[in-house]
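Let's practice the habit of predicting before peeking. Look at the sequence and jot down your guess about where helices and strands might fall. Then scroll down.
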Amino acid sequence: MRFPVELEQRSPAFWAVSGTVLVAGLGVVDYFTGYEISFSLFYLIPVFLVGWYSTRHLALSISGLSAIVWLGADVASGARYTNAVIPVWNMLIRLGFFVTVASLLGALRAAHEREQRFARIDHLTGVLNARHFLELADAELARSRRYARTFTVAYLDVDNFKEMNDRFGHAAGDQVLQAVGQHLRDALRRTDLVGRMGGDEFVLLLPETSDEAARAVMTKVHDALSAQMRQWSWPVTFSVGVVTFATPPDSVADIIKSADNLMYAVKRSGKGSVHFLTRRG
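Done guessing? Here is the structure:
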């Protein structure tokens, strides 16, 4: 299904030109088929394409152009009316129809994009949900294996989260998770992946990140999150296991398991800190 994907990647300028050319072409065909044959339905093609793949304003412009070109082709092909108002009225009716279609397509596309986003994003924290994280991590792992690139995975768990919920309520617990998600999104690069694996656990994948760079980044992240919890006087700390892979393993499950095991080693040693490990084979 490469064709629809490529269409979605086209710029508004492409759709402005393409829509205009399509409307002009339809106008020429409409002229040569004559006014006795109704051709207005075909003007929905550029309206539909622009309305779905581009902006609402551009779709409305193409709708207006379609109505005007239809009128020009109709008159030029020899149509005669008993009153000069009739063709203008017909054009306005078609314009209203085209605009309605363009508006409905825009609303449908916006709803479709929201649905796609909700299918990928954890609604509470704004980071990737577990399913989408695993899909992207699998692609990143394949890329790292192909180009022999070092990468880092970190597993973060919120310590004492159950006690936090019991003592302050679930709203406060949600606020903690939202703060963690927001900070992780802000602190990391656009190329990094952040996912919520469920409950109070987050996993991070940092492409092309050495053990030295990972140590600097994750220490900074841990310190900032811990300071924020202290500022709010909440009894929450963070246990983090950070594993740098010089040689990519066979599966995403392997990399997550390695970081998860290291995170639990942090919990067994007293919680609230970061442990680092480099795997070279």
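How did you do? The mean pLDDT is 88.
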